[in-house]
Amino acid sequence: xxxxxxxxxxxxxxxxxxxxxxxxxxxxxxxxxxxxxxxxxxxxxxxxxxxxxxxxxxxxxxxxxxxxxxxxxxxxxxxxx
Length: 81
Fold this sequence. Notes:
Elements: H1 2-20, E1 31-35, E2 40-42, E3 50-54, E4 57-60, E5 66-69, E6 74-76
Parallel strand pairs: 1-3, 2-6
Antiparallel strand pairs: 4-5
């Protein structure tokens, strides 16, 4: 029963995230750095060829689903993709 409820929620979340982060293929950076859940200072990145992907939150599926947002600071320069 639980799996029947969580599947539509998970699929909907994926669709929303995919639609909100859609970027034209030509506008994507050549290199993307990944920022996990820890304090990150990436303000030194100034090139338009480098982007930052980051962990915005976690979904825990033990019992009822729980969404935990990112708690650690992520600092990037303005305009960083």
